[in-house]
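can u pls check wat happens w/ 6-phosphogluconic acid
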Amino acid sequence: MPRHLTIKYYVEADPAALARRAAQYFAEMASEAVEAQGCARIAVSGGSTPKAAFELLADPHEPWRSRMPWANLDLYWVDERCVPPEDAASNYRMTREALLNHVPMRPEQIHRIEGELEPEAAAARYESELRNCFRLEGAEAPRFDLVALGMGEDGHTASIFPHTTAVHEMNGRAVPNLLRQTDAWPGRLTGRGFTPAPPVFFLVAGREKASVLREVFTGSNDPERLPSQLIWPSSGILSLILDKDAAALLPATDEDGCGVLERER
Ligand code: 6PG
């Protein structure tokens, strides 16, 4: 992976505007992928920030529902909680209620992590699902067309929490499977190998995320403490869609609300 990373950030006035930009991004990236190769494979995480974007995508009164290539879309998750799919904490449940219940996708297009199983079994089954869907061999990683991530106040992303074994497992690995969080967060499964090539974007909102965003993207490299720094796509480009509260401590943007940061490691 390149040592250089260009971080492009887009700042919206508030969480509602952020959700609109995210919906637009999903629709554009999915359509481009379908045009180029006949299908679009998208990986999403949980958390509250993507929910509003999912609701917009599903809303027949908004422009995106009719633009999304639903029939040619495959949806994956980068992480899941170790709970059944109907549990309030399930990332799948959030996505199902906000999006999947309202759009014309077939069950075989939806590749959820089975949080209700023993974590090792869920991880093995998900790895085999990814291997089959992406026809992976050996240590090849799946090449999604879009990966949408969130970030916690402690710098975690995709259930990779600070100072946990997942940080080391994730670092430098491209093995497409799941890792059980064994220490501080035993109830989570995180995906590995989901970031190598595709467009990756973070969706982050709220004043409480401002200082962690600054640390992750402008501070020194310390992925052990700030696991979001592990997200380093091989394209050398990472996008952030932020609201102005979250972006409050980043360098000012241009008049279009765009900013750029450069990082080396
Ligand atoms: C999860 C997520 C996690 C999330 C962040 C941010 O299941 O918890 O996958 O990585 O993206 O915690 O969450 P919010 O968007 O709710 O702030």
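Helices lie at 15-37, 49-58, 64-67, 91-98, 119-134, 165-170, 210-218.
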